[in-house]
Each structure stands twice: as C-alpha cells, then as structure tokens.
Amino acid sequence: MNEIELLNWARGPGLTYATIFMVFGLTLRVIEILAMGRDKELAEVRASGVANGWRMILKRSIPEPRNWKYITAAYIWHIGLLIVVFFFIPHTQLFRDVFGWWFGGVPSFIIDFFTVLSIAALLYTLVQRFTDPARRILSRMSDYLAWLVTFLPFVTGYMAFHRLGTDYTLMLALHILSVELLMVALPISKLSHAVTFFMARYYTGSSFGRRGIQA
Amino acid sequence: MTSEKPVLADELQRRGISRRSFLKFCSSIASAMAMSPAMASEMAEKLAYTRRQSVIWLSFQECTGCTESITRAHKPSLESLIFDFVSLDYHHTLQAASGDAAEHAREMAMHDNGGEYLLIVDGSIPLKDGGVYSTIAGITNLEMLKQVAADAAAIVSVGTCAAYGGLPRADPNPTGAVAVSDIISDKPIINIPGCPPMPVVMTGVLAHVLTFGIPELDSLGRPKAFFGDSIHDRCYRRPFYDRGQFAKSFDDEGARKGWCLYELGCKGPTTHNACATLKWNNGTSFPIQSGHGCIGCSEPDFWDAGGFYKALSTGADNPGQWAGNAMLAGVAGGAAAAYLNRGKKKQASDAVEPVTIDDMRGK
Amino acid sequence: MRSFDIPLEVVDTNSRRMAEAVMHELATRLRALVEREEPHSIDLRSLPLDPAAKDWLREQLGQGEVEANLDSIGSSKVYETGFSGIWWVSHSDPEERVVAEFIEVCWIPDILQSQREDVKHSLHTLENSINVAERGDEL
C-alpha cells in the first residue's frame, strides 16, 4: 500500500469505523452509568441535592493552590486541545462537513502557539508521573497508554503542518490515524472522562447536598 | 541495423534547423527539468548524436487525452520534431495504417529493434472476464502488453490510467482495470501520471531517456525532476495558506483576492506534479491560478479521494452517516450492560452474610 | 458584474526579498568571473519570483550597451544589463510565449556565439557555392 492509498483509507473507511466505534462506545458507557442508578439513600435527606450537583460541576473546575504546577500544566494542554481541535481551520472544515455548521476558525499562528504549549505541558505531566514517587506507584500501563494516545495527534499534526518528518502525504495519514486511535481509545479507557466527568461531579455534589454539605 | 540509422544532428541539418536553435531548445528542456543551465550544452551534444529511437505506443483503456496532450503543437515546433525523429513505429490513433497492416508493422518494428525499442503505454489494462473489455485487432490488452513488453528496453506509462489505473479503476472498477506496473515487473518502468500529463513533462522525460538514460524516480516510479515537489510546495498562494486566509466559496471576497483554495477542496498538499512551476499551455496558467483547486490528478486513486470540492481534512466517505445507528446500538448495549451489572450487584448483595456480635466474639 | 469589472488587488507576497537575494548572488558570481574566469547561469524559472519582483530585478539591473535579437524557432532576446558581464537571456516559442529565462554572468552568452557544427556546415555550403559560381563563370 502506498502513502496516498493509506491516506485515502484513513480519511475514508478508517474514519467511518472510528466514528462508529466511538459513538457506540461512549453511548454505551453513558447509558450504562445512568441505568445503574444510585444506591438507596438510607439516611434522612436533609436538602435537595439538585442545585448542589450542578454547582459541583463548576466548582471542581476551579484549581486548588496545592499541586499548582501539575494542575496548571493539565489546564494548559486541555485548553490547548479544545482550541486546536475545534478552531484550526482545516478541522473546522471536517466538523462543518459532518454537522452542517461550525464556528469560524482562528489564525494558524495561534493554533501553532497552543500546539507547542500543549506538547510541552503534556511532556511535563509525563515526567511528573514518572518521577513523583506517589504517582509512579499509582500509575499503570493504561495511564501511560492514555497519555501516548493523547500526545500523538498533537505531535503528528504539528509535524504535518510544518512539513517535518517524512513526506507530507504520509505524515497527514499518520496524523489522521493517530486521531482515529484516540477515538477508539475514548470509550474503553479513562479518557471517557471527556464525556462522563460532569456526571461524576454531579453525583458527588448531589449526594453531598442531600446530607446538607455545601458544594 | 541500428548503425545505419541517421543521428538527430543529420535530421536537424536536413530540416535547416541550426545548432543554435537546438541549443536554445535544450536550454528550455533542461530548465523545465530543473537541471543546471550548464547541462543544456551537454544535453545538446548527447541528444544530437542519438540515433533514431524506435518507439511503440500502445493505447489501451484510455480516453486519448494523453495523446492529445503530447501532440499539442499549433505550429511545428522542436518538440514535434523530436517526436518525429523518435521513430514512432506504432501508434494506432496517429498512424496512417490500420487493421492487419498496422499490426504487421508493429511486429516488424519489434523484430527489427529487439531489446532496444521503447514501449509507451497509455490507458489502463482491464483484467475482468479474461480482459475482453478492451481489445485491439482481437488481441486483449493484457496479452498485447505482455507480448510487446517482453523485448522492450524500457516502458513509459503515460497518464494516470497506465501508471496507476486511473478513471477505469475508480470504484466499483467494473472492468477490473489495473496499471502497467501491476502486470509487468521485469522491465524498468517510468510513470508519467497526470490526467492528462503535462506535454513538457513528457517531452522532457523522453529527451532525458534518449540522452542520459532513465531519470531518478521516486517511490511511485515518477521522475523526481518533475514530480519531486508537491503543488503546495511551489504554489504562489502558499503565503495565504500559511497565514490562514482561505476563500470560502467560488468568487467570494477571498477568492477574488487570490487566497488559498484549501476549503474549496484543493488537493495541492498531497499532489506531486510540475503544474505550479511549469504551468499549462506553454506557461500560461494552472488550475489554482485560474481559481479552481487542484484535483490531484497525478496521484493514484484521485477519483476516490472523497470529492474534488471537499477539503483534504474532511472524511472521504461521510463518516457521520452511521452515527445515529451507532448511538441506538450504544443505548441497547448500555441497557444490556446495565442489566448484567444489576445481576452482579444482586449476586453480591445476596452473598452478603450479616455479622453479629457473637460472630465477632468467635462463638 | 462582468469579469473585467472585478477590481484587482495587488497583494504582497514577500518575493521581493528573493529578488534582493538574487542581486547578492550576482555580485558573488561576478567576482568569481573576474577572479577565476568562472561563468554562471541563473535559471529564473527555478526561483519563486512573481511578476512584480521580476520587474523590480529588471529595473535594478537596467539596460547596457548591447542588445541582440535571435530568430530561431521563435524569437529570443539577449541584452547586457547596466552591469557589464551580467546578461539577461529570454527565449520565446513561435507563439511569443517565454519558455526559458536566464541571467548569465559571463564574457558573452553561449547562445550568441556561432556554434561549431553550424560553422562547419556553413564552410561546406560556402565552398560549394563558390565552386558553383566559379564554374558558372567559366561556362
């Protein structure tokens, strides 16, 4: 298979299969979690948990002062991810094609800036995971793989845009394939938090609220 | 046999074309091939002393666009001279003879120039149903290709059909079309793709083959001199791409300012050809300059690359079409998973044994 | 709106810097010619110059004392620029379209010189025509 055939496969059947699997997998996860329901509340309910649930979703987004270096790095690359994925003009073409409408794009030099920042931040978090003794003990292979699967699209995308590495056609194919790998990994790893994080926070907040604890 | 043939220099003289004119021609060919200008006189020297080269041109499953492209000469030019000199022993569109006489002429040329003739092929070769979908004089293309290739010195696949299968090979490929290189593997093959290929590219490659032999080829068998760069690498609109200034529709504000055509489906970044530097119609223009994105016609499978007007970053097969069904399947799957989970939960709670104070005291 | 009513906008594409770089290269090559008798030819097609940048380059180099027009399978124009030793060579096809353009740093461009084969052929032809004329006189 030559590089243009690989690219056509990645853009064609590859993307279709990855999309099917990702939508199927994430939906299954969400339904599974919702259908599990919650444990029977045996204590007396002191207040409604609803407002607290919603509040918790936002409150947990505010970083704490301890551990600030790691949290800052994580924030940097999460924000970078959102900007680069959803506002780089070639990406907006893809979303517009799939959804019929999308936001406007952002000048490419801004995307470039955030990509480099995100790559640096991701490398920092990896080093931290490896050197900090507590994190090292807690980390499993699935954590490192999740990191890799997130890191690859940034690097391959940057290399492709700047015509680094090998022939552009092959680099673009690798970038698209790395994204498909991420899409497939999303439902079957901790990366599903992208979709489930708000449910987890709501759950915690509402159970606190019912016990009368402010979020 | 070959030593009796005249050299090109004699032919030039016979036609009253000065060596100076010939040097000018070689300068422009060398320039087109991005060779150093100093090579022009070396090329002129070598080319002048080549003997008539026998060429057999086989046209298979094609639209004749490649032949049209190569014969584009409004007035007699040195390009057409080179082609006249390159003894075109067989070309069933251009030759005067037809039928059995023509096939006989081909066989004679093959016999007389055994091991030395150049085989040029345009059009793909259909394989389905014994190759009946394209035949010449009752012989299938497959059979004729194998016969003629057997004693050829080298093969030039002209056009994307001969080089990679082209249009006939596009989904669903009803005739089972394949490229020349899918059938012949024991002869040097030069691919000159394009739909059609650029005339100056064909001339340049032929001139190179006659003087310096087979040029350096890339991984898809294309001469690097013409196919080494992508359109994107040499596009004059590149600064707009780098700045992120794109035309959103044909003839809008951005289009009129000459902005990049990425959003309008331009395949320039993944297409290798010389259109951006050498341009078409003797250097007049090329698709992007005229406001239309590159369709990638010198790459394999360009017909199945998702559509000429969809950006390179979009999915080629409409990836979202199954999302609705996938979601429904996910709901069903989620419900099934939840059912199994409840079963496990119940099992776990059933297995719980209550502990009393006495149990803890060990009674 | 008709197509020729669409207002044209000249957009800056930074190739003027490339043209300036060519001037630097010409200085280097001219020195090589003077000090080491090394001629050089720059193929303008190999450089990403837009029409504006090329015009600027032409203007900078100016026009010198010598200009030659060739009529050989289309016309060609060769002229020495305002800088001695720097020549501008432009080849056109029979339809007056430019097919190759070079800036040559040399004592005289090759294309202007008489070519050896042509001279040999001319010698042969000239001697023949003299013989015929003489024989004609005798008769």
What does this structure look like?
The complex is a heterotrimer of chains A (215), B (363) and C (139). Chain A is mainly alpha-helical and 215 residues long. Chain A has nine helices and no strands. Chain A has one domain (3-36, 64-210): Fumarate Reductase Cytochrome B subunit. Chain A has helices at 3-36, 50-59, 68-87, 89-99, 108-131, 133-138, 141-161, 168-185, 193-210. Chain A is globular, with a radius of gyration of 20 Å. The relative contact order of chain A is 0.18. Chain B has a five-stranded parallel beta sheet with strand order 2-1-3-7-9, sandwiched between helices. In chain B, helix 2 (19-32) packs across helix 3 (39-48). Chain B has helices at residues 8-14, 19-32, 39-48, 65-70, 78-85, 99-112, 141-150, 159-164, 199-212, 224-227, 231-234, 238-243, 253-256, 275-278, 280-283, 323-350, 357-361; strands spanning 54-59, 87-91, 118-122, 125-126, 135-136, 139-140, 154-158, 177-178, 189-192. Helices cover 41% and strands 9% of the residues of chain B. Chain B is built from 17 helices and nine strands. Chain B has two domains: 2-227, Rossmann fold; 231-319, Cytochrome-c3 Hydrogenase, Chain A, domain 2 (Irregular), CATH 4.10.480.10. With 363 residues, chain B is of the alpha/beta class. By secondary structure, chain C is of the alpha+beta class. Chain C folds into two domains: 3-108, HupH hydrogenase expression protein, C-terminal domain (Ribosomal Protein S8, Chain: A, domain 1); 112-139. A five-stranded antiparallel beta sheet of chain C has the order 1-5-4-3-2. In chain C, helix 1 packs parallel to helix 2 (51-61). The longest helix of chain C has 23 residues, at 116-138. The model of chain C has no long low-confidence stretch (mean pLDDT 86). Chains in contact: A-B, B-C. At the A-B interface, helix 1, helix 4 and helix 8 of A face helix 16 of B.
